[in-house]
Structure to design on (453 residues):
C-alpha cells in the first residue's frame, strides 16, 4: 500500500495529491481523521463490476456514522447521481462498501465520500473526497487477502471432495492440508517429499511427489500409502489428470542401471497400481510441463530448450495410444510452457509471454502478451472456472522480480491482466471450488488471496 502526506499550514489544511489514487491523509502520529488508502485507486481501468470499495483511515471509524449515504456514486457519462444498492461494513479503520448489484459495464464512475464520516474520537473528515474508476466488461475478479496460520505458503492447490487441498509449509516443515473455505486450514500429514501435484479421484486423495516416495494415496488425508510402480522407477511426478476410468501422471524416471533420467508417463485405474504408458517423447524435450483432460482426450504439453525451441502437444483419448503435434518457434526466442487447462471447447497452455490455444488439440495458435522486451512472464498455473481461463504467476523486469500477475481470458485467445491483485508475491497455484477462487503464494507470510470477495 502507498501512504500519503497531509501538509498542515498555519491557516489551512492543504491536501497534496500526487498521482493516481492517492488520497489526502494525516502525517504519521497526527490526530486528524483522514484517508490513508482507497481501492480501486483513482483512475483505475477495467475494474470488475462486483468490486467492493475499500477505504482505510488514519483512526478507528465510528460505525454509527458509516451509513450508506456516506458514499455517493455518479455516472460520468451523464453526470447523474445513481443509486447503487449495497452494504457498508466497518472494520476498525477500514470502511468497505460491498455492492449488492453490480456496477454497469464499461462505465466511468465518480465516488464521493462524505465529510459526515467521523472517528470514534469524534473527529470528522476535513473535506469530502472524490475519485474515479472505470469498469470493465464484467469478466474480471476482485481479489481479497486473507491471513492463514498453516501452511505459511501454498505451493500446490486443488479442489476435491468438497475441500480445498494444498501442499505447503514454512521452509522447514511441509504439510498436506485441507480447507472447506480456503481460509481455515487443517494440516493432516507431515510430508517428507516435495509435492508437485494432487487430485481427489475415485474416493482417494492422490499426490505426486519428488523422491523418495513419488506417488502416495489416502482414503482420508491422514493415513498415506505408497503407490505401486513395479518395473519402473519414477523419481518425480510433475502433473496428473483423470477421466472417470483412468488417471495419468507425467514426470521423470531413472533407469535401473542409473544410466540417466528420462521422461515418464504412467497410468492407473485405481490410483494404487501403476503401469508405464508408452510415449515416444520428442528427443529435444527439456521441460515436461503439464497434463489435462479436455472431456475427450488427455493433452500433455512439453517444451524443448534454448532459442528456436519447439513446443509439443501429446494427445490420447485412452491413455494408451498417443500422438504428437509440434509448434515450432518462429523467432530466435524460447517460450517454455508449464501449465495447461481446457474448457472442453478450447485448450490453453501458458508459461511465458506466449499463450497457446487450440479448439481441436492438433492445430495450435498463440497470443503473444505485448510487453516491453525487458519484461518476462513466468506463469505457474492456469484453470477454467466455468466462464473464463485464469492464469497466475509472476513477472520480471530487466531480470529483476516484478511481482505477481493474474491474466484472464473468456475465449483463450485474448488475454488481459487483472490489475487489482494486491500482492508482490509469486502466485504459485490457483483452485476453484465452484463459488470461490483461492490463490496460493510462494512467500512465507501466511497469506492467501481469494475471489469473489
Amino acid at each position: 500500500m502507498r501512504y500519503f502526506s497531509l501538509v498542515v499550514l498555519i491557516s489551512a489544511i492543504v491536501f497534496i495529491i500526487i498521482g493516481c489514487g492517492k488520497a489526502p491523509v494525516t502525517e504519521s502520529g497526527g490526530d486528524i481523521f483522514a484517508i490513508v488508502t482507497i481501492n480501486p485507486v483513482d483512475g483505475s481501468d477495467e475494474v470488475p463490476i462486483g468490486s467492493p470499495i475499500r477505504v482505510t483511515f488514519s483512526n478507528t471509524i465510528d460505525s454509527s456514522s458509516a451509513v450508506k449515504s456516506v458514499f455517493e456514486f455518479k455516472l460520468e457519462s451523464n453526470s447523474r447521481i445513481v443509486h447503487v444498492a449495497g452494504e457498508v461494513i466497518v472494520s476498525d479503520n477500514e470502511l468497505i462498501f460491498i455492492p449488492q448489484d453490480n456496477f454497469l459495464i464499461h462505465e466511468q464512475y465518480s465516488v464521493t465520500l462524505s465529510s459526515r464520516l467521523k472517528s470514534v474520537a469524534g473527529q470528522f473528515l476535513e473535506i469530502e473526497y472524490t475519485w474515479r474508476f472505470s469498469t470493465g466488461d464484467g469478466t474480471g475478479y476482485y481479489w481479497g487477502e486473507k491471513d492463514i496460520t498453516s501452511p505459511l505458503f501454498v505451493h500446490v492447490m486443488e479442489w476435491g471432495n468438497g475441500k480445498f487441498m494444498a501442499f505447503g509449509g514454512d521452509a522447514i516443515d511441509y504439510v498436506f492440508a485441507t480447507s472447506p473455505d480456503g481460509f481455515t486450514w487443517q494440516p493432516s500429514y507431515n510430508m517428507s517429499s516435495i509435492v508437485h501435484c494432487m487430485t481427489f479421484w475415485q474416493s482417494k486423495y492422490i499426490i505426486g511427489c519428488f523422491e523418495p516416495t513419488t506417488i502416495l494415496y489416502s482414503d482420508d488425508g491422514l493415513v498415506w500409502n505408497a503407490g505401486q510402480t513395479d518395473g519402473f522407477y519414477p523419481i518425480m511426478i510433475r502433473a496428473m489428470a483423470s477421466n472417470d476410468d483412468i488417471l495419468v501422471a507425467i514426470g521423470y524416471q531413472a533407469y535401473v542401471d542409473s544410466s540417466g533420467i528420462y521422461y515418464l508417463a504412467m497410468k492407473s485405474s485405481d490410483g494404487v497400481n501403476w503401469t508405464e504408458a508408452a510415449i515416444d517423447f520428442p528427443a529435444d524435450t527439456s521441460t515436461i510441463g503439464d497434463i489435462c483432460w479436455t472431456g475427450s482426450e488427455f493433452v500433455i504439453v512439453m517444451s524443448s530448450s534454448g532459442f528456436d525451441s519447439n513446443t509439443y502437444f501429446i494427445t490420447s483419448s485412452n491413455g494408451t495410444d498417443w500422438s504428437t503435434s509440434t509448434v515450432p518457434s518462429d523467432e530466435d526466442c524460447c517460450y517454455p510452457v508449464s501449465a495447461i487447462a481446457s474448457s472442453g471447447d478450447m485448450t490453453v497452455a501458458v508459461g511465458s509471454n506466449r499463450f497457446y490455444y487450440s479448439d481441436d488439440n492438433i492445430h495450435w495458435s498463440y497470443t503473444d502478451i505485448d510487453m516491453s522486451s525487458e519484461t518476462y512472464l513466468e506463469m505457474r498455473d492456469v484453470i477454467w472456472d466455468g466462464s473464463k481461463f485464469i492464469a497466475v504467476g509472476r513477472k520480471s523486469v530487466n531480470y529483476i522480480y516484478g511481482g505477481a500477475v493474474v491474466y484472464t481470458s473468456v475465449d483463450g485467445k485474448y488475454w488481459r491482466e487483472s490489475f487489482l491483485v494486491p500482492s508482490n508475491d509469486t502466485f504459485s497455484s490457483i483452485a476453484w471450488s465452484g463459488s470461490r477462487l483461492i490463490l496460493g503464494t510462494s512467500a512465507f507470510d501466511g497469506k492467501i488471496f481469494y475471489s469473489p470477495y
